[in-house]
Amino acid sequence: MPSKESYLAYFLAISAILFLLQWFVYRQLKKVVVRDFPDRSALIVRIARITFFVMNIPVAFLFFRRQINAQLPVLTNILLVPYTIWQGLMIVWTLILVPIVVWELTSKRLRNLRRRRT
Predict the structure, then answer these.
(1) Residue 58: how many CB atoms within 10 A of its CB?
(2) Better-predicted residue by pLDDT, 59 or 13
(3) R_g (Cα) of the chain, nearest Å
(4) Which residues lie closer than 8 Å to 79 by C-beta, 6 or more apart?
(5) CA separation for the pair 21, 26 (Å, rounded)
(6) Burial class (CB in 10 A: 0-12, 13-18, 19+), 1
(7) Contact yes or no for 87/58 (Cβ under 8 A)
(8) CA distance 52 to 45
(9) What share of the chain is helix, strand, coil (3-state, %, to 5)?
(10) Contacts of the segment 50-59: beta carbons below 8 A, 24+ positions apart
(11) Is the dihedral of CA 51, 57, 58, 63 positive or negative?
(12) Could you say which DSSP state residue 2 is in?
């Protein structure tokens, strides 16, 4: 059976990976919102930032689950079902956005390379 330290290491590694995926999606969302809605972008970005923060609160619940004395099945259903859906959406958006960002970066680099040659 794995030790508590290995569980902690895996938990922190997976949490870091999910955080990076969400940061990537948030940065792309912010870029699009600022570009397309310059007059309302501050409010929309603030709402998105709060939403991303609130949807990650269950990570703290997972980390401190053993110290919580509430009814765990009910609390788990209330917190983890939306969190699981949120993480699924973040993974899907990452799968959609990564090829687009890679295409934009490669086309931008190719344009810069062509300009330097001429």
Answers:
(1) 21
(2) 13
(3) 19
(4) 57, 58, 61
(5) 9
(6) exposed
(7) no
(8) 10
(9) 85, 0, 15
(10) 52/22, 52/26, 55/82, 55/83, 55/86, 56/19, 56/22, 56/83, 58/82, 58/83, 59/15, 59/83
(11) positive
(12) -
Flag whether the pTM goes above 0.70.
yes
Q: Are 87 and 79 in contact (CB under 8 A)?
A: no
Letter string b/e over residues 73-86, b meaning 16 or more CB atoms within 10 A of that residue's CB: eeebeebeeebeeb
- As a whole number of angstroms, the distance between CA 34 and CA 45 comes to 8
Q: What is the largest CA-CA distance in the chain?
A: 69
pLDDT band at 15 (very low <50, low <70, confident <90, very high): confident
How far is residue 27's CA from residue 86's CA, in Å, rounded to a whole number? Answer: 17
